């Protein structure tokens, strides 16, 4: 037990911080939002040089991974510096292809991973099907006692805990929250799997982030992975630096089979973890900037940072961020669906709450796009909802519980 | 205790509903924070005005219908229920016009109000300055006496609508020697196209120029555009900002319609049970705001005034509006981040609510000190 | 439109306030909690003299009602003074018997109402069956398009709004929230009415308040009204002045038939409204006492009421109470289920939030039973949950919506 | 980053689990805030102590097992997961004992700790006074020098456990002339049954005497019961209250077990979907608190100290505990008001969390000023 970053990990964070601090990321974000990817690509290359894209990828494909803790470290910094681009998606694409290779499909890995690691291939990723449904109640619930419908039967105890057996269990079953739920009192025990909710299932967004900038648009649909040939029109997000577009149908198939679904589940956890880390970084940056601002901004003859209401709101912001942080590292250590979901919910909410606080305490000037603060403010909410909304993550947390939450080793 | 309307009010409601049914554009106008949307909304004001629906509570001679407060509330309910466009003339109608009614001259009213009612002249407010946000008494922009009027100089900011508007109103320091900073301020109207005015639009979070900075360099304002006595601006403006926070800024009809849209969204999304309580709270909150307003309007109609409880009103609607939009975005799930979905602009707009018209921190101080009698702190 | 209390109503409130202020209700509450009902009965008699028990009862039975607005006025004062006893229950019993008489069953009214009005008969009431289920989702949902299973078919539009036709519609259908829900997207459209939730239905508490003090323990079970002969052991509530006991089975039948269920629904709305008004009164008293306290209590050399965090918390408390208040009067005017539910949810939550604030700002002394503050603190949460928890009330609000919320006259 | 336990720690966990399985009473003991319950809990302490489970982190010579911080955390997880009784000796073990380890003499430790470990002597804290709640520096109770010791006089209050406990510890003013109110205070232990002590139990909200007032009238305390140097009490106590807010007061195991009970209740109640998010947040919060504590323990094990971040800790668990219990009561619906249901006492207890050990208002001030560097206000 030493639940602390190592000196090397801390040095990695500082190095990224220094590099990004010198890179004028604010200008890169603004250009990115305007469709000019040049400065963003320059940052991307420097991230590659720093090794960020190698963290999910094993040595066999020129990576150094899988290193989820280092990924969290890096993505906190990416969030703190508001770096634009399909960051979590490229990391997840690396994870997907690596996992697929480990499961016996190594052609796409050989083809794409070196480029991803080297920074030459910016990738984006959509998992369309059987993509995570967006509401917990709409998650398929297999009949009592049965295993996940498509996955291998779960080994183990009377109450199977799929995460316990392996750090990377069947991704698909986890992604859709289909851990068997044999207990009495669960909804609709006698009905078909989906009884109990006639709700439409909004599903994932179905759009790729920054497809217009990416060199590889990877699409997972069911058990098929393909490389889309193009994409539809770019739709603006509430964060203009997030450019959304629907991948074209068709394109080049890269792999087919159950391994694709499993690898996609693994990649989705990786994406969720990286996104959560970005949320934390965004929240930390917002807090830091707001603390500086309220120290120098005076109203009624005194710095507004001396008003107790301001102080308490900032204290609460710090509280939420600092209790989300260990969840991230914990999730990086296990990569269990429920742990990643807990971290995602907590970091996403804390980052968004930090944005609300930052906006309120900056007042009108915070509401303007020209203040750089806006670059972080606008990221907080989309990051909170990408790769698992808080509601969906909370449902996954409950789905992932065994008979007792259990301690570290209990 | 009575919530019934008179037969006249019911007839008025029916007439408004019918007119709106026939006239409200089938598709939403473009955002009024864009040049093309601004023009479209100005045209809509003209359409409203043509049938005397733009300023129902004003006297007939200025384009209104002499509608009392209950008819105004009825109109607002129908207006928003019909999904009618946002009001580009809001600042003029709800901030400047009440001031003119109370403190202007008949000449000023006759000159200013009809073109405001028709949308021919759209007004922007010009209160804040970079160093005077919540602390309005710290204003520095000045008006210097000149022959037949005043010369305005200084720097105003957060001037809503000023990117595309025609005229503006605000406070200017006319007596820098006044004993207290609240004194020596004068309330003036000025032309945004006058020589010496530079308008720099400012993009809000979604990039739209919802407000602007105004750089004023010896802008001439004739005496006829001073409202009330020189030096009395603070007193006059406080009456106006009271109004801004009170009945006239956020009508209950707006939130009743928004809650209704939220319920529809929730139903469309399969009545997600995790959001049930929040959707219900939106319905309850809209009803509470409607009834709170009805009580205030009843006191007003009975000769009472709106005092510090307007701070309760402002706190309520501004936080309600954000919560409602956040719930909608949550129901949309990952689609909530799309800037082209129907809740996106309202969400961004709602975020400004706790900031403008006196920050919510200030409002809570006011509630605590004036309504609860707690001691003034250093804040 | 004159949504204000009349001078007479205000005078009624002041008279009750004066009377109760002189009655040492604090001592009466403490005695009540200890099982000594004598001082509480004395207050009860004075309430009768003031006309409180006549407000739900029509002139034919020696009352002056139904006067729901005056009932709200009175119950706010009862809450402000923490009066003990089955207050809402006696008022609701009056409403039940009056309604039953109007529906043709006047024997119980003749027998019991004069005693209730005069204060000699303290009544309590349990509606056990088909009593309101406690979770909205567990409310029976008839099949699409059908009317409530046992009630008369709803007249009216394509989307029936039972409340629109009459101020006192079929109580039972309303009470169980069974307004037909024909719209697409509702849960389990093809299943049996209860599909979609295998949840146990906790139901109402099934206990009578202060049965040990009451002269008449009225029990509604389905379509039967009876007078219980006795009750089980008294169970303490978190508010010791609320003494809970299960009525004995059997007893004397008073009325049978569909009118009982309808009258019980009406009575439940009356009880919910009165309880909500008590919640508001409790919250107002807590706020008032806390404001006084923070003005005189000093720490760090200054009254704690000058600290901004304290001021803002009290401002928020006032805000919630003042926005609950008009909902109460509005609900009194319509007595629609959804309006009563909205008022109940808002007032119950506001009263409880006021208790949390009062406790926190009093600090340790507020946590003691010996400070009179505790008499109000302990009431806030049980009142919030009695006759409709916030969750159930919110479900009823949504169930009661038509195609649009609608204005006063719209 | 490592969350794994050593083989020793795993063996320790297994041993604790096994012992608890065999010994934890099948039915909950009566409330420890009652005379009979207090006695039952004291007997349970003796049972724990008999097998050296009452103070696992203490040195063996005082009844402990020399368990490091991770083994202590493991024990706490197992303890609460097993549903074992509350700890009547909590005040002594978590507040006084750390002070004795740091500031006491070996004679004091040998005399005081073994009977504390066995439950033979149960200790109450005696910090607050009527005019000194959050503002401890305002203490007035005094200790006057006498032959061979001190005479205590004054009025203490909110003394947890004092209704039934044996001894108490607290701060007393020994130098009324000291330059600052923080100075001139001395840390003393005294006997609650000594001549001159009057204990008046105070009922908390549920009527149980969870604390007491102490009236002290020239109570003799021998020199051997002074901890540290006279006049150094403030410094010593601040170290102790830091501890009170830090690791030792609320172990993560407690909340992990509580969240687990909440999930069971939610499942029993049919997984009410409206409560789903709140139940999940309870699970997430318990895990966050566990991991936050693991990080703190790791820093501590690596030679670091717990500073102002203990205020974050206290804010988190105190608000978490209330929210968790409120969620449970909501799941119980109208049954939640029954004082005999299993969540009732925990709910009442949780309400005190934001008040004691430094109110949450003070904690937020500390976080803002010491962790964020915001200017001191007048508060």
Describe this structure in words.
The complex is a heterotetramer, with two copies of chain A (410 residues) and two copies of chain B (379 residues). Chain A is an alpha+beta fold. Among the domains of chain A are: 7-121, Acyl-CoA dehydrogenase/oxidase, N-terminal domain (Butyryl-Coa Dehydrogenase, subunit A, domain 1); 279-399, Butyryl-CoA Dehydrogenase, subunit A, domain 3 (Up-down Bundle). Helices cover 49% and strands 8% of the residues of chain A. Chain A has 13 helices and nine strands. Chain A has helices spanning 7-21, 25-33, 38-50, 68-80, 87-102, 107-118, 162-165, 171-175, 258-296, 308-334, 337-362, 373-385, 390-399, and strands at residues 123-129, 208-209, 216-221, 224-227, 235-236, 243-245, 252-256, 298-299, 302-303. Chain A has a four-stranded mixed beta sheet with strand order 1-3-4-7, covered by helices on one side. Chain A is globular. The two termini of chain A are 14 Å apart. The model of chain A is unreliable at 130-203 and 403-410 (pLDDT under 50). Chain B has helices spanning 7-23, 35-50, 69-81, 90-103, 106-118, 233-245, 252-268, 276-301, 309-332, 344-351, 360-371, and strands at residues 123-126, 142-146, 149-160, 167-173, 185-191, 197-202, 211-222, 226-227. In chain B, a hairpin with a 2-residue loop joins β2 and β3. Chain B folds into three domains: 7-118, Butyryl-Coa Dehydrogenase, subunit A, domain 1 (Orthogonal Bundle), CATH 1.10.540; 123-231, Butyryl-CoA Dehydrogenase, subunit A, domain 2, CATH 2.40.110.10; 246-371, Up-down Bundle (Butyryl-CoA Dehydrogenase, subunit A, domain 3). The longest helix of chain B is centred in the last third of the chain and has 26 residues, at 276-301. Chain B has eleven helices and eight strands. With 379 residues, chain B is α+β, with helices and mostly antiparallel strands. The two termini of chain B are 39 Å apart. Classes of the chains: A alpha+beta (410), B alpha+beta (379).
